[in-house]
């Protein structure tokens, strides 16, 4: 592949969909320059085209509809001047890829069952860039990670943000390094045997820099979401809006070589058409997968608790390969911390969805049957919710299990991690249970060494009114829940962002190093034991006792034995223990006649006869 500077000068074609426009002009030039204004040519379907003179370098440009102020391209690949400035063209073919032998995650087996690692580019390293993240990839390889999941990189207003306020889904945030840096990052991951999953947001755009409505009916008042009018997926003009979404997804797979996409809050994709946009996307990704010759995956964040999300389209499902399972997180969190406020209430047990058992009974249900709310009453939602999962038909690896995520940490008042709430032994129990479960496990960045740094909610909006609204809204929300107003971090304060950056000195230190070794050993064990890589749910067995506070997760000849109590006890095991494969506290873990003796907050993985 020729390098950018060696490529011949060629015309560049710009196009934009503006179906109701009478005229569209392109403004070529960077901010501060006197732009060259050129009329565009209309074409069927509401499209407009313009072709430049031959040029080698990128073009800065923006579109003006019917004489209005020039705005960025709805399909912009690069916003080096911020989300309010002009777009810049990007040659996706200029990168010289080195991953020609890449077969996909897990040596071509794909993402299901892989160890996924969720990270935020801006806080993963002090520099907060994709290139600086490359320098830490060997840590992930050593940990045993298979797939790196990047929180959204779409361009957003300001310097830092979680990414869910993106307004340019085709662009890569310039402060992260722009689109070329993402190509370099994916290439570097593949060189190390790591797959890449990109978090994408198709259900809404952020509050600053959203100019889609200037161009066409991208939104509709026929449906509403928590962010306002929904994306137009089923009204007049929806055909091109659906293509805007699907083309975006295909582009990441094709031009940036990513291996999976995590689709944010798909339950907010309001689509009453004859064929849901997710099913359409799934089928097109399957076609591209065949063309590229490597596995591609779609992972949904869904609040619906319905396995139809991961059912193939040929069987009437939405066709997602996997989905996040918050019920597993909630059950683990409540069993470990005892918290039961808000949506945690049902997971404490002795409640409408689980009247005859406590938190460990709830946890046992999620570990075997995926959801607590599977047609049962949900107190938080004030309705019956979800549907049962057919354990004999649905692969457990189609659900991601985890102890932490960006949401479950960052949406707490002060962004405190599980390690701030429980003892090291309790975190070790939580890690052991989800890393030896039938689900696809996901680790949140820093969790593996019990990072002391929080992950807080941060933004950097430029508009003064929006800045104040975000700051006041966040603090007032938690003040109403009993927090002191001043104790809730200000999202707009740079210190909030800086506090959330990982401290890379910690993994080699004391208790942090011990936790890191525990996670590494669990992942190694998972990979080496056939019973732990089996996704069959109908062979998972869990026994527990809410009063005595113990739980045993059995998968074939391997069992994870956990003592949730603070005092030592012998935990009964459903078969003779042939040996201890791994223990959090080996010196205090012994095989007893009636089971396994564990210290308080102890856990071990054992071989059964």
Explain this structure:
The protein is α/β, with parallel strands linked by helices. It folds into 3 domains: 13-70, Immunoglobulin-like (Sandwich), CATH 2.60.40.10; 111-524, TIM Barrel (Alpha-Beta Barrel), CATH 3.20.20; 539-608, Sandwich (Immunoglobulin-like), CATH 2.60.40.1180. Helices cover 25% and strands 20% of the residues. The strands form 7 sheets. The protein has an 8-stranded parallel beta barrel with strand order 8-9-10-13-14-15-18-19, surrounded by 4 helices. Strands 20-21-22-27-24 form a 5-stranded antiparallel beta sheet. Strands 3-2-6-7 form a 4-stranded antiparallel beta sheet, with no helix packed on it. The protein starts with 12 loop residues before the first strand and ends with a strand. The relative contact order is 0.09. The mean pLDDT is 97. Pathway: Glycan biosynthesis; trehalose biosynthesis. One of its GO terms (biological process) is trehalose biosynthetic process. Its EC number is 3.2.1.141.
């Amino acid at each position: 592949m020729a390098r950018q500077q060696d490529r011949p000068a060629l015309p560049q074609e710009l196009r934009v969909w503006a179906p109701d426009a009478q005229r569209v002009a392109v403004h070529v030039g960077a901010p501060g320059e006197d732009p060259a204004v050129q009329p565009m040519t209309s074409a069927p379907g509401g499209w407009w085209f313009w072709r430049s003179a031959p040029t080698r370098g990128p073009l800065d440009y923006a579109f003006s509809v019917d004489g209005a102020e020039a705005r960025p391209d709805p399909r912009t690949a690069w916003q080096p001047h911020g989300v309010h400035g002009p777009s810049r063209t990007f040659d996706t073919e200029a990168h010289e890829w080195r991953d020609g032998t890449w077969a996909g995650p897990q040596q071509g087996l794909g993402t299901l069952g892989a160890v996924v690692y969720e990270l935020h580019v801006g806080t993963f390293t002090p520099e907060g860039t994709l290139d600086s993240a490359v320098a830490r990839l060997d840590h992930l390889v050593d940990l045993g990670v298979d797939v790196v999941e990047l929180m959204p990189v779409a361009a957003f207003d300001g310097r830092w943000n979680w990414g869910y306020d993106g307004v340019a889904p085709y662009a890569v945030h310039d402060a992260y390094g722009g689109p070329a840096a993402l190509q370099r990052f994916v290439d570097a991951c593949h060189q190390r045997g790591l797959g890449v999953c990109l978090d994408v947001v198709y259900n809404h755009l952020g509050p600053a820099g959203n100019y889609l409505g200037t161009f066409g009916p991208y939104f509709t008042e026929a449906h509403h979401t928590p962010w306002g009018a929904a994306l137009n997926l089923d009204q007049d003009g929806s055909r091109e809006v659906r293509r805007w979404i699907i083309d975006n997804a295909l582009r990441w797979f094709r031009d940036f070589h990513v291996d999976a996409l995590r689709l944010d809050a798909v339950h907010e994709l309001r689509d009453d058409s004859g064929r849901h946009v997710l099913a359409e996307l799934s089928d097109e990704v399957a076609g591209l997968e065949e063309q590229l010759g490597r596995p591609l995956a779609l992972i949904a964040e869904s609040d619906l608790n319905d396995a139809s999300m991961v059912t193939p389209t040929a069987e009437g499902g939405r066709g997602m390969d996997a989905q996040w399972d918050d019920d597993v997180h909630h059950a683990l969190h409540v069993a470990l911390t005892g918290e039961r406020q808000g949506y945690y209430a049902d997971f404490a047990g002795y409640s409408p969805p689980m009247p005859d058992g406590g938190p460990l009974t709830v946890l046992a249900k999620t570990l075997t049957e995926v959801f607590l709310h599977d047609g049962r009453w949900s107190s938080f939602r004030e309705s019956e919710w979800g549907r049962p999962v057919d354990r004999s038909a649905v692969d457990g690896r189609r659900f991601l299990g985890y102890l932490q995520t960006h949401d479950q940490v960052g949406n707490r008042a002060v962004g405190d991690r599980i390690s701030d709430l429980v003892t090291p032994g309790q975190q070790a129990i939580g890690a052991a249970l989800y890393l030896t479960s039938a689900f696809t496990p996901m680790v949140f960045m820093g969790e593996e060494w019990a990072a002391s740094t929080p992950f807080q909610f941060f933004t950097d909006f430029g508009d003064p009114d929006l800045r104040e609204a975000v700051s006041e809204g966040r603090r007032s929300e938690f003040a109403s829940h009993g927090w002191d107003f001043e104790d809730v971090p200000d999202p707009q304060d740079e210190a909030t962002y800086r506090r959330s950056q990982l401290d890379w000195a910690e993994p080699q230190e004391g208790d942090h190093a011990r936790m890191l070794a525990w996670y590494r050993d669990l992942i190694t064990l998972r990979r080496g034991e056939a019973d732990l890589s089996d996704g069959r749910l109908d062979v998972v067995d869990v026994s527990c006792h809410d009063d005595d506070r113990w739980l045993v997760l059995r998968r074939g000849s391997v069992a994870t034995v956990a003592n949730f109590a603070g005092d030592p006890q012998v935990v009964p095991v459903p078969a003779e223990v042939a040996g201890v494969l791994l223990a959090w506290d080996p010196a205090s873990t012994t095989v007893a006649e009636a089971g396994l003796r564990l210290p308080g907050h102890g856990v071990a993985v054992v071989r059964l006869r």
